[in-house]
Each structure stands twice: as structure tokens, then as C-alpha cells.
Fold this protein.
Amino acid sequence: MPRINKDRSVKSGLPPGTLIHIGERSDREIRVTIAEYTEKTYEEKAISSLKESFYYMEPKALTWIDVEGLHEVELIQKFGDTQGLHPLVLEDIVNTNQRPKLEDYGDYLYIVLKMLRDRGEPGVGMEQISLILGPHFVITFQEGLRGDLFGPVRERLRNGKGRLRSMGADYLVYTLIDMIVDSYFTSLERLGDDISELEDEVVREPGPETTRKIHQMKRDMIQLRRVAWPLREVLSALERRESTLVSAPVAIYLRDVYDHTVQVIDAVEAYRDIVSGLLDIYLSSISNRMNETIKFLTVIGTIFIPLTFISGVYGMNFQFMPELQWRWGYFLVVGFMFFVAVGMLVYFRRKRWL
Amino acid sequence: MPRINKDRSVKSGLPPGTLIHIGERSDREIRVTIAEYTEKTYEEKAISSLKESFYYMEPKALTWIDVEGLHEVELIQKFGDTQGLHPLVLEDIVNTNQRPKLEDYGDYLYIVLKMLRDRGEPGVGMEQISLILGPHFVITFQEGLRGDLFGPVRERLRNGKGRLRSMGADYLVYTLIDMIVDSYFTSLERLGDDISELEDEVVREPGPETTRKIHQMKRDMIQLRRVAWPLREVLSALERRESTLVSAPVAIYLRDVYDHTVQVIDAVEAYRDIVSGLLDIYLSSISNRMNETIKFLTVIGTIFIPLTFISGVYGMNFQFMPELQWRWGYFLVVGFMFFVAVGMLVYFRRKRWL
Amino acid sequence: MPRINKDRSVKSGLPPGTLIHIGERSDREIRVTIAEYTEKTYEEKAISSLKESFYYMEPKALTWIDVEGLHEVELIQKFGDTQGLHPLVLEDIVNTNQRPKLEDYGDYLYIVLKMLRDRGEPGVGMEQISLILGPHFVITFQEGLRGDLFGPVRERLRNGKGRLRSMGADYLVYTLIDMIVDSYFTSLERLGDDISELEDEVVREPGPETTRKIHQMKRDMIQLRRVAWPLREVLSALERRESTLVSAPVAIYLRDVYDHTVQVIDAVEAYRDIVSGLLDIYLSSISNRMNETIKFLTVIGTIFIPLTFISGVYGMNFQFMPELQWRWGYFLVVGFMFFVAVGMLVYFRRKRWL
Amino acid sequence: MPRINKDRSVKSGLPPGTLIHIGERSDREIRVTIAEYTEKTYEEKAISSLKESFYYMEPKALTWIDVEGLHEVELIQKFGDTQGLHPLVLEDIVNTNQRPKLEDYGDYLYIVLKMLRDRGEPGVGMEQISLILGPHFVITFQEGLRGDLFGPVRERLRNGKGRLRSMGADYLVYTLIDMIVDSYFTSLERLGDDISELEDEVVREPGPETTRKIHQMKRDMIQLRRVAWPLREVLSALERRESTLVSAPVAIYLRDVYDHTVQVIDAVEAYRDIVSGLLDIYLSSISNRMNETIKFLTVIGTIFIPLTFISGVYGMNFQFMPELQWRWGYFLVVGFMFFVAVGMLVYFRRKRWL
Amino acid sequence: MPRINKDRSVKSGLPPGTLIHIGERSDREIRVTIAEYTEKTYEEKAISSLKESFYYMEPKALTWIDVEGLHEVELIQKFGDTQGLHPLVLEDIVNTNQRPKLEDYGDYLYIVLKMLRDRGEPGVGMEQISLILGPHFVITFQEGLRGDLFGPVRERLRNGKGRLRSMGADYLVYTLIDMIVDSYFTSLERLGDDISELEDEVVREPGPETTRKIHQMKRDMIQLRRVAWPLREVLSALERRESTLVSAPVAIYLRDVYDHTVQVIDAVEAYRDIVSGLLDIYLSSISNRMNETIKFLTVIGTIFIPLTFISGVYGMNFQFMPELQWRWGYFLVVGFMFFVAVGMLVYFRRKRWL
């Protein structure tokens, strides 16, 4: 079962803006990485707690604050209050049951996305990413369950290669979203491989386990759809530049990512159609095999039934049964049985029952 | 069966605005709780009948009148007339067959919602809540079947903690709606648990009872959808601030509740897809087991059929059957039978029929 | 089969505006009831033919002309020409194959609706009602198959109680539509009861007849949907006051009826989902029972097959079969058979095949 | 199979505006009928080839040129060039694979419709009709496979009865479209009758042929939908008077035809739902009968199995079998068999297996 | 399996605008064909590499640069930079996983389409075509897997016949798109033929292979839909002339192609409905045959069961069985058996079980 809204009910009846961490609990410390950069300079500071982070955010450079781990809600509360974030934003950040969404709070945009994780266990693993895009800063929140997901982007920032450092906060957000959407393609490829395997299994050796696998595949698809469609909405809104925080040149890049999300949805829907079809084929395949077996056995049975009857007739104990006295009676009857059996075999073969 | 519009036909042919209570009849007295509050003060008065309530509603403070129990229609009529409510509003309040909806009567908004109750019996239990939002007052109507549902909110008002007392009537309505939407998450969690159990049952030990459970689950889903979708519409309209009775800061909170309703619908649709799939798996699971059984039995039968035939042959009473005179005839034949049986067993095992 | 457009082809190739009565033919005379009323006065005249009606329609009061029976097309033609109705309106009035619709002819609105009749025979019985709303008059046409359907409204007009006589022609039309929509709730309740019964039947004693009933139920649902959805469109257009013939206060009442139609559609769709599910349960229920039976019989057969084989072995006529000479041979073999039978019973019971 | 786009590929790679006749080839000559009329006068000239037609189209009267047969593309090319028709229009006229559509070329409207033919063979027969509506002229193209389809309209023009001659070119087009839409009702009635028959067959005597018939019915429905939906779009566009070539009074008539197309679609969709349901009933009906048969046979078999076993026991050749010596042994055993058989019959009947 | 996004993950984490060729790798050299033409003149130059092409594009004539083969990404990068193409356009050109789309970059339009290839292997083969439409130039990119696809258009340009040379760049793009859309009709015809064959096979001789074929057909349909729907969007946008690069006369031609895409989608959807129906018929057909077989065999078995029982009775070894001593006992019993067999045959035939 997709664990939708598990534990959510603990919030029932609490006033809005109450921060409660809902989700898997990371056993690591909260880690905060603060990067300040201009086209020329790059400074990075990693601190192990949110407490120290309250002095940052100077206006001279672009600042990217990345928070890993969501379970120390009091610190996040304090941090959010310092940065002037709306209580509802903080509430949503620590609740990992969010659908992907974009909210415009005027001064900043609040974006929630789901990154697909490498799947060790069955099901589609997801990690919630919150992005806050302000005019001169970007704040990101990761669940921090599998370590830092933004490593490659940070690396590119450090190197200073490409456009990344010379462009605004919106371009940084674009880069992060692009990375997240790329994780969908990786998942889709794995799904595609799994479906191919399943197709082979269904046609070659369908077993009782196959149904369970198809059901699991369907559930994965349902989960993927649930995050893919709202993802598209988020990117569509960004690309249409409904907020002034997104500049025109970056909107072109966002249109590209939007296209990718359309491709993702397209693939998910195609896979879904194929998987639905699989169950039908599985059922028809199973029932075909079953029927072939039962038909074969029934045919075998049917051939012996008249033979057994004949032998029964000559097993009767009547005193006057002329055939019993015949010299070649036995051989005639056995010959007749043979003839009947062969005749039935030929008949059944002609009817393609054998 | 969902009891849709049961008893509704008693209204057939009556002029509009005729108040008739449609719904389960509470056996308690109608209870009215009137709360008047400002940021500093809070006064509450509980009266056991609507008769006394007609003197209230002074403009100096925010007034919240909560009515529990809908069956004394004459009193509700009188009360409604005093407060200047439209006859159709009163008609809808006492008819618990309403879909969630929002109606703008200019001076006030009339909102109907369904609160999900804890489910003792099967099915999704619902209680209809009517909310009237005026500039300085809120009037709420509960069915009153399971006691006061708004206790926690009243408690928060009394304490004076949080934003509740310092904000307007729209914020009170938001708080009540938030509570109602939270009840959906509780129901969804229970549903999710039930579905998980059902999935286990379908795969491990499907029985004839399972179909009935799946059908019941489907019906619960249909009922949940019927209230969840219009709920979203209501919140969408509120959030878009189509009425001036909703202020901009509260609209942000309403957007948050709107998001919750989208999550609810999302979960309901996902559950629905999963439950639909369950029936397919159940059927394939059942027919798999059935077929395995019948195949096994048929194979057993098929092994004995030729053996029985052989014994029949040597049970014939022909006078001249040379084998019958052979010294080792009996043992040869039994040996041959054994050989045939073993051969068939090997053959069937190879074909994976056993 | 729903008799959709039966006999419609007789019109093929005729010029537009040719009046041809299509529908069930009432065997009664056409009856015309003319009511003229103001807030204070009420005059009613019932005439048995349309011929006399051509002198009416004085502007000093509200006039309601109600025509029962549609088969005398020449009279309706003449009447329509006198009142200045468009030929296409007249053509539609006498053709009972209309979908519910609203047409604005500037001076008047032409509304077609379907009233659901009490169902003696299977299927959803319908009667077509045409309403013409002018500034100071209302003209209604009933099929007249089951007598006057507007009796209760006429009674209310006579009594002069309620708002009916003090308001305009649009309110009269609203009252009539309200009555018609109420007939849908009555039908829905009956349908709901039938579905409940069917659900019981499907689970408790599904028979071959059940399929037919489910099919019939589905067809009723299809027919109900076909009239319910356009009905909603009609009321939506009226409520939005696209025509000046509808006044603002009446629009509030029409919004209420619009809500009712939404409830009707809601219920129809929910019932439809449930009925679709019923066939699945029926099939699974039937095949479950079938399979249980066949499994039971197969198990019985399988127990006797080896026993019969054993008896066959000792029925062979070999001269040298040592067991046959044993003193207790017979009893040993019978005991062995008993042992085999019990062993198989225990095995099958353990496998839950019995 | 619906012959969709058969032979269409011959056009692949040719420049646009290349006229190639695609469709069934009529073996008749192309026939052209030219009618010029005013309210008072009517002149008609039938010519057997397009060559002579190039002198016509005088502005003093309304001209209707009707072309029957599309296979002489060079003549149609020449004719079209003379009349100033766009090359793409000519290309579409001779290609009978068009969907119904409306194209506004400023000076004239180009309308393609499908007329349903009387169905001798299975499937829904269609003939493509092209209509060109100019300010003072109407040009129509028929495939000419079954003779002149517009006979009744021409007859009405000759008689001069009704509105036809006193109104403009748009009214003539309306009349022709009305006739075409009427052909859908005729087809629908036939389909309705066929479905009724099929329903009876499915319930009373389902055979292997029935599946094929249901499939054919489904395909007919698919084809009908494919022409009915775009037909509605065409009429919707006409009725909304998007072109100035349609006058307001005629738009009212077109709204009426639009209503008819909605009725057609409505009926097609209802039929489609019913036909989909039919396959389910057929399958359940077939499997019910099958199961009843097999259950009956299995019950019969099961009754004899223990009896045969008993007779086998007393067919054993043990020397010491006391019952064999009993005086009434035989009769006792036969009586016991009878008792067992009757007991099983009673048991099976109670279980409703017989 | 449709190979959706295979190899796409290699791009994961790379900065945007990084050119990576994704798709089948052609083993030919990249070929560039440059055509410059006015109404009077036509010059063509074929070069084997992109390196030489950087000097072209003079403004005096229309220039069409056609690039075949996408695997030398550095050259395409360089070429794109020279022509001023956006990095994202270049990225999309070399990634053959694109959905058909249209992007407006102000100075030029970027269009991606899929051309359907002749299908040797199973599945719908596709080749990605990128078109860039500027005011005075057209640049096209083919995958180059099967040689030059634009031969016929180039030929028409050389000849100078038709409108092609006298019109603008938009008309050239129209001509190319028209050619691409024509390739869909060819594919559809082949699909139509395959479906017809499959329908015959399903009804006449359904085998286990048939399911696989239906599944394959469904997948082809899914793939076709995936490219057909966005193709329609592209043409709809072009035809609505959202860009000034498309002139009004050419828009009329584009509307024609748009119509073709609607026909394609229409046909695909119809085929899809038919193919879905096929599986149902296949299953019912298979189970019909199966059941007929098993019924036949069961009936045969059932006839012999009582006969065998009778012979068993008279095979019992009781000392006192009067019938055994009767002179005609044997013949009477055999006659009785015959009578029973014939009676059962008649009974089964009457019940239509044989």
C-alpha cells in the first residue's frame, strides 16, 4: 500500500501553523550548507545545526541555504521566523505528505517537489524537496534520508563553469528542478525494464506470483502518476512566468523542463496502458494453459471410458453369453477395443483436440 | 446501499421554503451555544432551546451561534426569520441530503459540508454541517447525533491562545472547515488500513466473503468521492475570495485547506484505482486455486483410468484367455500397472501438471 | 430497448415546421385549462377543445394555459399561430422525442422537460412537458397519458396561499419545474430500493434471472442519465438569467432547483457505479458457487476412483492370485479400501477442498 | 473492418491540390442538374456532363448546381477553377475519406457531410455530400452511387410550396442538411431494432454467432460516432452564425437541426452503452448455460460412481466373501444401491444442484 | 516494449545545453544538402560534412539546409552556434526522444515531428524530423537511418513545377509536414490490413499466438497515439498563425494538413476501439470452443457411466442372481443398455448438448 497520509491524523484538531514532522525520521543530524556566490566568488560553509545559521543572508551576493533533515521542528520554526516565512510554509515543509505544488507568497515562491530515489525495496521511493525562491536567495529543504541529493549542483557552483554562477536565483532553482526531473527518467527506465521482463514472464511462464507483480507494477504507476501530473502543473506555472521572480531567459529553460515532465507523463500513461493489458494477457494465457491441460486429460479419459465399458460387458456372469465360448472371442474383443481406441484418437486429432 | 435521498419524496409537491427535517432523528434536545468574543473578552452561554436565542447578536463583538439538532423545524424557522435568513437556506439546513456547497446571499455566505464520523458500523458515516458566515457573526448547525463536534475549537476560543480570537468571523469559519477536512484524513487512514488488510486477504486466503468486502469498499469510495469533489469546489470558491466576506490573510489559510482537499481527492482516487485492481486479482487468484485443485484431481483420475481398464480386461469371462493361465500372469499384470502409473506420474510431473 | 426516436422516420423528407405527432397516443380528448390570476383574483375555465381557447390572453392578469394531449395537431397548429409561436416550437411540442432543452425566442422561452411517471411496467416511464414562458403568460403542454400532472400546483393557485399568486410568470414556471424535478427523487428512491434488493439477491441467491435484472437496471440508468444531464443544463441556463424573462428573486429559487438536479445526477452516477460493480460480483459469486459444486463432486469422484480400481484388480480372473485364497483376504481388502478412503478424506479436508 | 482511408496512400508525396478520386467508383455518367429560381420562377436543366455547365451562374436568381458522380476529376477541376473554388476544396470533394467539416473561405462556405444509405449489406453505408454555400448560389456534389439523393428537395422547389423558394441560399443548404440528418434517424431506428433482436437472442438462445454480431454492432456504432460528433460541430458552427452567409432567421432553423444531431449522438451513446453491456450478458449467459450442463452431467456421474464401486466390490473373486453366499445378498445389495442413489439425489436436490 | 527514453539517463546531472546524441546511431556520414532558390533559379550543393556549411545563408534567396545524421554532436553544436540557434534547440535536435512539438523562439520556429517508417520489423518505426523555420531559411534535421526522406520534395523544387518555388519558407515547411503526415496514412492502411487479418484469425482459428498479436497491436496503437495527438497540437498552433512567420495563404494549406491529422487520430481511435473489442471476442471465442469440447466429452462420458454400472451389476459374483440363469438374460441386458444409451442420446440432443 502506498503510505498516503499515514500519521497525518496526529494533526487533527491542532491550530494551523503548528509544526509537526510527518514522515520517515532520519537518524542523522540536521545539516545546513550555506553558499554565497557572485560570478567571481564562491564561499561555502557547512554547519551541523540550524542555530548558527540565523546571522546569514547578506544582500551583496546570491545566497543558497540548504537544509538536510526535517525532524527538529523547533529549529526550523525559529529559522523560518527569522527569514520571514509564512507559518503555513513551515508547516508544509516538515509534512512530507505534500503533493508537488507552487505557492506564490509575493516576496518568494514556495515550491514542493518529489525526487525519486533509487529503489532498493519494491515501490517507488520518494524524497520531498522544498524550494523557496526569493529575489536574492534560494532556500532548500531535503528530507536527508539518503544524504545530500544536490551534490552535483554544488560541485558545478564550486567549479564556476557554465552559466550557473553568472545568472540569478531563478536559474539556480531551474538547475535543481532539472536535476529532480531527471530522476524521473532514471525511474522510468527501470520501470520500462521491469515491464519488459514482466511481459516475457506473462507470455513464457506465467505463475501465481505474476499477478502480484502486475498489481505491484500498477501501484507503482499510480504513485508515479500522482506526483507526475502536479509536477507538470508546477512547471507550467513557472514557465508562464506568473511571478516576477522568474526572468524571461530562465523561462525558456523552464519550458524545456516542462517538456520533460510532459514526456514523463506520456511515458507513464503509455506504461499504464501496457500494464493494464498485461493482466488480460496473463489471464488468457493462464486459462489457455489450464484448458489445454484439462482438455488433454479429458480426452484421455474419454478414450478409456468405452473400452472399460466393453470389458465390463464381458465381465458379466450370465450363463448364456455365446461370445465367451468363442475360440477367438478374447482376441476379437481386444482387437475391437484397439480399433475403437485408434478410431477415437484419429477423430480427436482431426478435431484438433489432441 | 448508500441512503441517497431516502425519504426525500415526502417533500414532493410542497411549496418551496417548506421546512421538513430529512435525516436521522437525534433523540436529544436541541442545544444552542452562543459565544460572543473580542480579542480580550469571551462570553459563552448554553441554552437548551432555540426560543431564548432570539435576543442575541449585538454588533459590538463577534458572535458564534451553534445549533445542535435539526428536528424541531418550527424553532429553526422562527430563528431563521429573526436572523433574516432566506427560506431556501432554512430548507436546506434541515434537509441532510445536501451535497457540500457554497451559496452567496450577498449579506452572508451559506456553506454546507459533511463531517466524517467515526465508523462503528460499516460504511462511511457522515454528519451534515451548515455554516453561515456574516460580517460579524457565524451561525453553525450540527445534526447533533454524536454530541458536539466543535468542542476543540470552542476550547481554543476559551483559552484565547493563537490567532483565533484576534481575527474575524472568516477565520473562525476557516478553523471549523479545517477541522472538518481533518476528519477526512482520519477516515482515509482507516480506509488505507482496511485496504492493506484486504490486499493481504486477497493474496493469502481469498474466500467468498472477500467479494462482499471489496464491493463494500468500492461503495465507501463512491460515497467519499461524492462529498470530496464538491468540498474541493467549495474551498476553491472561498480561496478565490469571490465574496468580500473573506479577507486576504484568511484566503491564504483557505488555500492551505484547499490543498488538503486536493490531497484527499488524490488519495481517494488512488485508493479507488487500487481497489478496482483488487477484484481482478481476487478473481484471478480464486480461479488459479480452483484450477490447481481441479487439475490435481483430474490428474489423479487420469492415472487410474487406464489401470482400471486393464483390470477390467482381465476380469472378462472368456473361456480362452491365455494370460489367465500363466503362472506369473497376475504379477506381470500388476507390475505392468505399476509401470504405467509411474510412467504417467513422471510424464505429468515433467509437464508441470503435478 | 429504450424506444429512442421510434417512428421518427415518418418525418424524413418533410419540410420543416410540418406538425406530426410522435409518441404514445392518448385516447382521451384534448383538455385545455385556462387560469387567469392576480394577487387577489383567480379565474379558471376548463374547456374540452382548443377551438374555444383562441379568444383569451388579456394583458391585465397573468394567464396560464395548460393543454393536455398532443394528438390533434391541426388544433395545436392553429393555437400556436394565434399565439405567435414559431413553427419549430410547435413541431417540437408534438414530437415527444425531445431531449430536455431551453430555447430563447426573444419574446418567450421554450422549455422542454421530462416528467418521470410512476412505473407500473419495467423501465423508466416518462412524459414530455413543454413550457412556454412569456412576460405575462405561461403555456404548458402535457402528453395527457395519465391525467393532469399539474393538479397540486393548480390547487395552490386556487387557495392563494404562499407566494405563488403574488409573483410573476417566471415563478409559476419555477413551481412547475420544481414539481417535475421532485418526480426524479421519487424515481430515484424506487431505484435505490430496487438496487438494494438486487444487491441482496446477488450475494444470497444469484440466479440466471439476475443478469437480466442487472441489464434492465443499467438501461434504466442510461435513460435516467439521458434526461438528467440536459435537465441540469436547462436549469443552469435559467438560473444564470440569460433571459430577461427571469427575475433576480426567482433566480435564487431556480438555483435551488439547479442544486436538486445536481443531486439527482450525483445519485444517478453513484447508482451507476454500484450497478456496474454488481455484475462483477454476480459473475464472481456465480462462478464461486459453480466451482464449489464442481470441486465437491470432483473430490467425491476422486475418492472412489482408486477404490474402484482395487476392486477391479481382485475381480480379475487369473488362476494364480494368492490373495484370493487367503481366509481374510476379502476383509483385508475392504479394510484397506476404507483406510484409503479415510486417508484421502483427511488429505482433502486439510487442503480445504472439502 | 471500416475501410478508413483505403487507397489514401496513392496521394503520398503528391503536391497539394492534386485531384485524385478516392472512393467507390460509380459506373454511371456524371450528371449535373442546374436549377435557377426566384420566388416566382423555377428553371431546371439536367446535363449529362460538366462541360456544358460553365456558362451558368447569372446573378439575377438563386442558382443550385448539383453534381452527381466524382470520378471525372479533370472536369471537376475545370468546373472548380471556373467557379473560383480553392484547389484544396476540389481535392477534398473528390476524396471521400473526409470527416464532416465546415470551412470558411470568406466568399463561400465549404461543408462536407455524410449521408447514411440504406443498408443492404452489413455495416453502416455512407455517401459523402459536399455543399458549397455562396451568397447567391449553392453547389452540391454527390458520390452518385445510388442515384439522386436530393430528389424530394428538388420536387419541393418545383412545386414552389412552403418557404423554400422565397428564402435565400442558406435556407436551401439548411433544407439539404435537414434531409441528411433525417437519414441518421432512419439508420438509428434500424439499429435500435437490430439491438432489440440481439438482446432477445442473447437472453434466449446465445450461440457462437452472437459474439460476431455484437462485434459487428460495436463497429457500426464506432463508425456512426465518427460521423455524428463532427456533424454536431458543423451544425454548431453554422447555428452560431460565424459566417455572414447564414442569416438570422435561418440560424433558428439550423439550431433545430443542431438539436437533432444532439439527439442522434445521444441515441448513439445510449446504444453504445447497451451494446457494451450485451457482451457481458452474453458471456455470463453462455457460461451459465455451460456450467448448468456440466454441473448436471457431473451430478449424474457422481451418483453412479459409488454404485459402480459397490458392484465392483461384489465382483471380486475372493473365495471367502460371506455375502456372496447369502440367499438375499444380491437383492440386499441392489436395494442398498437404490437407497444410496435416492439419498444422493435428495441431497443434491436440496443443495439445488439438480 | 516501446523504447521510451532508453539511454536518457546518461544526461542526468549534466548542465542544460549539453549536446548528447540519444537514439539509434546511423553508420553513415553526416550529409548536408543546401538548396538556394528563387522563383526562377535553383542551386543545390551536397556536402559530406557540416564543416563546409558555415559560409552559406545569403539573404538574396530562400535557403534550405538539410542535415542527415545526428551523431556528430560537436559539428551540430558549431553549426547551431553559427546560425544563432538556442542551445536548448540543439539539445533537442540530437535527442530523438522528443514528442512532436512547436516552439516559438521569436526569430524562428522550432518544430519536431515523427515520420513513420516502413515497418520491416514489428512495431511502429519512427524517425525524428526537426524543422527550423526562419523568415528566409528552413533548416531540417533527419536521423538519416534510412537515407534521405525528403527526396520527392527536393525533386519538385528542382523541376520548379507547382507553387513550391514561388512561395515563401513557410510553404516549404508546409510541404515537408504534408509529406510527413502522409506517412501516417500509409502506416494506418497497413495497420488496418493487419487488424482485418487479426479479426479473421480471432473468429476462424484463434490460437495461443493470437493474444500476443493483439497485445502487439495494442502497443502499436499506444505508440501511434503518442505521436498523433501532439502532432495535431503542432498543426493547430501553426494553422492559427500564432507566429508571424506563417502567412495567411499558407495557413489555409496548414488547415488542410490539420484536417488530415484529425483524420489520423480519428482512425487511430476507431482502430483502438476495435482492437480492444478483439480481445473480448478472442476470449469468448476460445472459451466457447473449449467449452464445446469439454461438454462433448462429458456427454460421451455420461452416456457410458450408467452402462458400465449395469455391466458391473451383472459382474457381481452372488450365488443367487436369478437373471444370470435366464436364457435371454444377456441379450435382454445388452438390449436394455442399448435402450438406455439411445434414450440418453435423444435427451441430450433435445437439450442441445450434442
